[in-house]
Amino acid sequence: MPITIFDGIVIGVVLFSAILAMVRGFSREVLSIVSWGGSAAAAYYLFPLLMPYAKRYTDDERIAIVGSAAVVFLIALIIISFITMKIADFIIDSRIGALDRTLGFLFGAARGVLLLVVAVAFWNWLVDTAHRPDWVNNAKSKPFLDSMVVKLESMLPEQIAQMIHTYVNDKIQTPQKQPTTDENGTANDAAPSDDAPATPAPAPAAPQTNN
């Protein structure tokens, strides 16, 4: 089985993610995730504090909630990112800087594989088997990624996995209007409208007279 374009894409994505994480360092990559998670938690718990101020500018409660949460998220992200960058720079410049970059390379490679697994999962859901190109089906890396997709789906809660499948199926299934045919076999695409004139009723029979 020869190497296909898909294999080249897989190798490129993994290497790019690994080199990027190696340059940044393992500590910076992990602390970056912590920054986003901490900012999201801060927005979730602290947005009610800004709600009274947001309601001065809008009467829509949903807009007030989104605006308050966004402000808290951005402020928390700036503060936490500043702290985590200082910590990451200290680690990289220390004696364990080489180890930090090595771990970053491994972390980046694993992140690249995870991104590819998620992409292949959606590919398998959206593209029918008969319509998949040969350079994807015959790729050497495809069986490995498919097995990882199965493991990833088994790790998800059943309700979440079912929700994802339902959402994807609803997006790709577009109901088409089926034309109706009359007795002569002619297709009638348009359905009868309620505003169309009704067929007149037959006139009543004239009463018979006795001579």
From TrEMBL:
Annotated Pfam families:
Colicin_V
- Asked whether the keyword Transmembrane is assigned, the reply is yes
- InterPro entries, from UniProt? Colicin-V_CvpA (IPR003825), CvpA-like (IPR052719)
Q: Which domain of life is it from?
A: Bacteria
Region: Disordered, residue numbers: 173-211
Could you list this entry's UniProt keywords, alphabetically sorted: Membrane, Transmembrane, Transmembrane helix
Give the protein name, as stated in the record: Colicin V production protein
Name the species this protein comes from.
Answer: Rhizobium tubonense
